[in-house]
Amino acid sequence: MTINRTRALYCDLLNLPRGKYVAPHVAAQGGHVGFARAALAVSYDRDLLQMPGTGVFEGVPDMDLVPDDDRRVGWQDGVEIALGDLYARGEPFGLCARGALRRTVAAWQKRGLTPKVGIELEAYVFERGEDGTFRPYGTPGAFVYGTGPQNDPAGLMDAIWTQAHACEIPIESMNGEYDNGQFELTLCFGDAIKACDDAFLLRVLAREIAAQKGLILTFLPKPIPERGGSGVHVNFSFADEKGGNVVAPDGALSEVSKGCVAGLLHHHEALAGVLAANVNSYDRLTPASMAGYWCNWADDHRMTTVRTTVASPKSARLEHRMADGSTNPYLAVHAVLQAALLGVEKGYECPAEEDLDCIENVRATRHTPTSLKKAMDALEKDSVLRSALGELLVDGLVFLKRDEAKRLESASVDEVRDFYLPFL
Question: What average pLDDT values come out for the chain (424 residues) when binned by 10 residues?
Fold first, then answer.
C-alpha cells in the first residue's frame, strides 16, 4: 500500500484522540507536528478553558508532538499512524500522560524491574432506532462469554478483530460480557508504553469501525443504568534483568508485589480521581459490583479492587480493577504503576487479604469517593501521589474534571450519558 499521509495522534486528558493528517515527510525521523497547547483545554462541548499549563492567556503557544521513529499501521487506505510524546519549548510537556508514563517506567527500571502490562477493555454497542435516536444493541439471545452472530449480529467484533490484526494490534481475546450488547476486548501483555499505544489505537479503531456500520461503540462506565458497568482492568507484572517474573516466583506474592498492593490501597481514594474521571464513573463504582469500589485485595477474587493471580509463577500478575474507559490509558497505567512504586519505596504495610464475598459481607471499610467532585477533592489532597504523578498533570486533570462535574451537576442520568456518548 502506498502511504500518502501520516495521521499524527496523541491522547489528551479527556481521552480524546486529537491529531492531524500531515504529509509523511513532516513527521519523518527528526521531525515534529505542532499543535496549540490550548487544544488540551477544550472541553467536550468546545469551551476553551483556562487550564493550567496551556497558555490560554499567554498567546496560545505551541506544543510539539515528537513522533517515535517507528510508524504504526493505519486502518484507512494510504494512511500510517505516528504516535509520540508532547514537548513544549523543547522540553517534555508536563501535560503529556505518555511522557509521564515513560518516566514512571524508567523509575521502575532503575530498580532492575521492567513493567509488563495487559489491558482489558469493556464496551457497549448502541444502534440507531427508527426514530433516529440511539438505543442498546438488539441482541436478545446474547449470553456471558458468547461469541458469533447470536451475540453480535452485525459482525462488529469480527470486523474489529480482523482490522486490528491487519494493523498489528495484538488482541488476546474477545467475547460477550455480562450484559446484552456488552463486549470485552483483551489485549496481549507487553511493555507498558506499547501496551497503552495498543489500547489507545484499538479504542479509536473500534469506535471508527462501529461508526462506519452506523453503530456507536462506547467505553462509558455505566451507559445503561439497569445493566452492568464497563471497566478497564490494568494487569501488570515485572520482569527482572534475567526476564523472570517477580510477582510470585515461589507461588506466593513477593515482597515487591506486597509493596505494590500496599501502595495501590494506600492511595485508593485519590486514584479514583485519575482512574474514574467521569461523572458517569460513579454509577459504576458501587458496593457489590465487580469494580474497584472497596479498598481491598485478594487472590483470584473479582469483587476486590486489586486481584492477584499467583497460581503460575510464570504468568503471575496484579490486576487493578477501578479504571474505566473514560480515562486516558497512559494516565491510568502511569497512576497504577506510580502508586505501586510508592508502596515499595515508602514501605507501606500490605493489609490483610479480603476473606469475605464482597457481595453481602466485606471486611473493607474504605471505598472510592461517591462522585467525580469528591474524587477530585481526594486527588488534590493526596500530596504524595500528586507529586509522584506530576503536579501540572494533576492540576490540569483536576481543573478539567471539576469544570465537567459542575456542568453536569443537575443533569439527569440520560443527559449525562448523551453528553459523553459521542466521544467515549
Answer: 93 97 84 94 94 92 95 96 96 98 98 98 92 85 87 94 97 91 95 98 98 95 93 97 94 96 98 97 94 95 95 94 96 98 97 94 95 97 98 97 96 93 94
C-alpha atoms less than 13 angstroms from C-alpha of 7 in its C-beta half-sphere: 17
3-class SS of residue 55:
coil
Counting DSSP H helices and E strands in the chain, the numbers are 11, 17
Q: What is the pTM of this model?
A: 0.96
Residue 326 CB contacts under 8 Å (≥ 6 apart), including other chains = 15, 219, 220, 221, 276, 277, 278, 280, 281, 420, 424
Nearest residue to 6 via CA among 81, 71, 72: 81
HSE-up of residue 362 (Cα within 13 Å, Cβ side)? 20
Return the exposure string of 379-388: e unless at least 16 CB atoms fall within 10 Å of the residue's CB, then b. bbebeebbeb
Q: Angle at Cα 115 formed by Cα 113 and Cα 121, nearest 5°?
A: 170
Q: Check if the beta carbon of residue 247 is closer than 8 Å to that of residue 254.
A: yes
The SS3 assignment for 204 reads: helix
Element (H, E) at 5: strand 5-11
Count CB atoms within 10 A of the CB of residue 120: 19
CA distances from 273 to 105, 374, 415 (A): 21, 8, 22
- pLDDT at res. 178: 84
Alpha-carbon gap, residue 346 to 252, rounded angstroms: 22
Q: What is the CA radius of gyration of the chain?
A: 21
- Percentage of the chain exceeding pLDDT 70: 100
Q: Alpha-carbon distance 375 to 1, whole Å?
A: 47
Q: What is the pLDDT of residues 171-191, one digit of tens each?
A: 999 999 888 899 999 999 999
CA distance 10 to 95: 12
Q: Where are the alpha helices (DSSP H) in 147-219?
A: 156-166, 192-212
By the 8 A CB rule, do 65 and 408 touch?
A: no
Look at the chain and count its residues: 424
Pick from 344, 328, 381: which is nearest to 264 by CA? Answer: 344
Q: Which one-letter amino acid corresponds to residue 92?
A: P
Distance in angstroms (rounded) separating the CA atoms of residues 381 and 270: 8
Between strands 79-88 and 5-11, the pairing is parallel
